[in-house]
């Protein structure tokens, strides 16, 4: 059975919330006026979106494009710094699942909103780089729920959208994958299961998931999933 898996990274493969929240706090503390965002607000409202889109929503036109991109560069510089200090961890069970897919020659790509440097840093810290056929950064693409990053990732590994499964932890990511015409698996690491109505499957734990569960998505007619 010929299919590929496109992975989101943060919240799906890596528990990087602490790393990114620390970088955000530093950025906001350096800005005037200072904006305060609680961890809960960041997780529910912003986590998983591109940082320029986060800034646009937070500052609502108060920042120029040049300021946004300078802050974006600084934010990811801080994030890489924190990641290397041990603030990124694997989602439980994901390592074994990646190994199973890799052993069965399933093509895989990363489709993340982070920068290329941050993606490589996280995967290097976790020891997962070798599992992936390609790594696509959506940092300069339209933010999810736009489908662009998944479309680019599918094309990069020469796979049609209809033959891709996207694994995501965000509602925007699931919507982006659906907008790209792909099958979807939602992981409840960031959002509760009842938020993922459009997802084809929802799982709480990769230890309860295996390659046969992926294959089943292509046995049932797509319109009935």
Quick take:
Helix content is 42%, strand content 14%. It has 225 residues and is an alpha/beta fold.
Describe how the helices and strands are arranged.
Elements: E1 4-7, E2 14-15, H1 17-30, H2 39-45, H3 51-59, H4 65-84, E3 89-90, H5 94-103, E4 107-112, H6 116-126, E5 134-137, H7 148-156, E6 164-168, H8 171-179, E7 183-187, E8 201-203, H9 211-216
Describe the structure.
With 225 residues, the protein is of the alpha/beta class. Helix content is 42%, strand content 14%. It contains 9 helices and 8 strands. It has helices at residues 17-30, 39-45, 51-59, 65-84, 94-103, 116-126, 148-156, 171-179, 211-216, and strands at 4-7, 14-15, 89-90, 107-112, 134-137, 164-168, 183-187, 201-203. The strands form 2 sheets. It has a 6-stranded parallel beta sheet with strand order 5-4-1-6-7-8, sandwiched between helices. A two-stranded antiparallel ribbon has the order 2-3. The longest helix has 20 residues, at 65-84. The chain is globular. 42% of the residues are buried.
Name its key features:
single chain, 225 residues, alpha/beta, 6-stranded parallel β-sheet, two-stranded antiparallel ribbon, 9 helices, 42% helix, disordered C terminus
